[in-house]
Amino acid sequence: MTLDDLTVSLRALRMLAVDFPSLPAPDVTVSPVFPEWLRLSFHDSSGQSLAAFEQWRTALGIAPDAVDYGTQSGGLTRVLKAEGRFAGAVIVLTGFADVPAAGTTLEGGAR
Length: 111
Prior knowledge:
Largest sheet: 5 strands, mixed
Oligomer: single chain
Radius of gyration: 15 Å
CATH topology: Beta Polymerase, domain 2
């Protein structure tokens, strides 16, 4: 495999940078294992990573009901995952955030 084989995912990344320059910067993964996939992930313990995930999901037109929710690390980490297409590439969004401690109030008063 050559770098040329990653053209679809790399082109999509370039177009995302041009079309959505003000969105939060993700961790980006391009792999020869899945050359047409572009993975964008968001990590932080404050919960802002889930807000960044939502901004990208909205910008890419991925429906809210296409988001999978789960936990990992024994229930200590929330995980949101969704897939969509952009510029011929499969875009995989993943957001990670700590599960709030019991009794913690999140923005907007949600628990």
